[in-house]
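#dry-run=false #mode=assembly
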Amino acid sequence: MTSLTIATRPAAAPAPTRRTALLRTLHSEFTKLRSVRSTYWIMFALVLASAAWCVAYCLGTVHQWPHMSAQDRSGFDATQNSILGLALLGQLVIVVFGALMITSEYSTGMVRTSLTVMPRRGTLYAAKAAVFAAVSLVVAFVASFGTFFLGRVLLSSTHVPMSLSQPGVLRSLIITALFVEACGLVAFGIGALVRNTAAALTLAFGFLVLLPQLIRTLPVFLHNDLTRWVPGGDAINSMTATIGGQIPHTFSAWGELAVFAGYAALLLLLGAVQFARRDA
Amino acid sequence: MIEARGLVKRYGSTAAVNDLSFTIRPGLVTGFLGPNGAGKTTTMRLILGLDYPSAGTVTVNGKPYAQLPDPMHEVGALLDAGAVHGGRTARNHLLGLAQTNGIGPRRVDEVLGLVGLTDVAGKRSRGFSLGMRQRLGIAAALLGDPQILMFDEPVNGLDPEGILWIRNLMRSLAAEGRTVLVSSHLMAEMEYTADHLLVIGRGRLLADCGMAEFIARGSGQAVQVRTPQPDALARAVAAAGGTLASVGDDGQFEVCGLTEDQVSDLAFAQGIRLYHLAQTRASLEHAFMELTADSVEYHAELPAGK
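#status=ok
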């Protein structure tokens, strides 16, 4: 074995500032994310699920189009139908991405190694969340704009106008991507709270799928009061629709997004507190 | 330099570490000894800030570990060689760690060479043998070229070649003037590598002294014998008030508490064949067993609760 010392030992490098430490950790977390195969599979699955929904829905509409009444045709929201797959299926995929981002550190034990090299827990957590948010946001936007343009191609025979300059279209594309992103961050926060993939996914799916179903079984006045607060059909309808005006019992599209961004912020914060306080 | 003062770690009502105070001085290999469950790993986790102490403090170079500006340049630690994401290649795993401390890819390739993993640098660590994982963990510890190194049970589960490699590595690290803290429950291993000993049992400090002093503190002298009838000899030795411990293979044993002459007379009287009989320095194993007899967490023979 050769000598273990290195010739080029950096001569007493200055202590890194808080900002340098964060930048380095961001770099590290990005390396970690891009160097495992599951990252690519999940991103691919997200885009595929959104696109598959778009294709199925649009082709179905094209098939139905000759038999649709003029009223149905004018009420057809081409943008919403193209991107709904991202909101409904994409949210389920991004939840896996968000939860795994943190629970895989615990399931492999890697978190102990990560914290040994970067013991400032707030910095590590922030870098991890930021890298996940940035990468998944890019994918969410690719999926929302991608399915919009895919839908435009598929629906061309109906001659329904689809362009980004139409009122509400750009808003719908952006809000849908951000909503999906918020779901991912909710799962990330839950992952940091429970530190276990199966538990995190159960809770996240319970929040996204089960909770809206439970709300629907409530007496109608309670349902009408609560439905705007859960990520169910009404709220998603409000965020994705480009025509037809305000959906009853919901906030505006931006208002609904703010609700889910609030959940994401809350869970990220709770996760951060757990990450910092509990033994690794 | 690692300093612990009144360190306590409780899990519920049991104290895994109980009022530990010690100083690990630079430039020595300090062996951290104790039976399974004595609190060695917990103590190392406390040093690294992975667990928070219930009471007391522990500092590395005068600061709590979490406040070290670039910890990899000061401490390299290998607690659990399995604590890696198996889907990542060896090189990417190390690169991700290195980047947190501003260490470049060239150093990553360098440490891969040092531990002999250059050929598998691009392979996912999932397929690595235990020995290769251990090397990967050591590569990670060496990335920042730190003055302090900590290894938790580094030879556990390794084949003889791997054990020899680790042993040589620790010796060369110490020869370069580094501080090495290595935990083990394998006494013989410690005898080869450690200069100084920190012995704990049930979370309490039992000894903090030099290797020679520790052995001398025990019964001191011992008699080495080789016999094909170990059971008969063990009974005879026990009846005469001594203890017999197995050292090494092929019928090598060590008797404590009796002189060379007494062992010889005993064997002659009982008709036990001895191939070898010599006065020797008591092994670390014997001294350790005497010291920790009361503090072994899990006695094999005793029913629970006794």
